[in-house]
Fold:
Amino acid sequence: MESWEISFKIRYNYPFIQMSGRYPGVRISMWCVWDREMVHVPLDHEDLMSELENYARSIDRVIDNYKFSNDGIVLTMRCSCDLLDSMWNIAERNHVVQVHPAIYLDGWGFFKVISFSEEDTKKFFADLSKLGEIELTCKRLVHTDAVPSTIWIESFFSRLTDRQMEALVKAFDYGYYVSPREITTDSIAKSLGISRSTYEEHLRKAENRIMEAMIPYLKLFKAGGKKRGELITSNMLTSKVN
Structure:
């Protein structure tokens, strides 16, 4: 079965798109899962943070918490999809899967989706065109078996260098992550012909970047209220996905 990975940008009357237009060059990232929206804003943009707070308050969507990352602030608020005809809603009713995160930059919303039929794709873009200006930036054929890999590899691994990936894979293959550990970083470094300090630097950077990419998904998963041991069924996905 064939599917398509589609990237596009759109400009219309949507709060986060409008906010990004008022802060040129400031990248706003959003993850939307179940009943939570997680928004990442770069550091040193107090005016934008204040506007986000006022917006959340004006629509009665409480900001649950604030977290500081290495390069910004992450805030979590209750989902606003029930108040707006957002891209998320249009994707759901046209059987199109959103690939997170959405990016809002310079007055545009940048999105990536997976579509499983040309008919759904045409309906999806027909609905989007009613909102405002839209521009297709990329469309490529992806086999259905590769869709999960396409989504997760893009999200988790795109920032890793070749040396960081090698360091992480070697650590796993040699038993560094089992308990008790079966090997030291010094031994792995010697097998690669590099110093221990160099290897550990590559490994730590790889671990940090994987965690930075994964934690937003984990927080959203936790905020969604799924109980330990509970299986996610197709009915749950249908009822909860925004």
About this structure: The chain has two domains: 2-152, 159-225. Residues 226-242 have pLDDT under 50 and may be disordered.
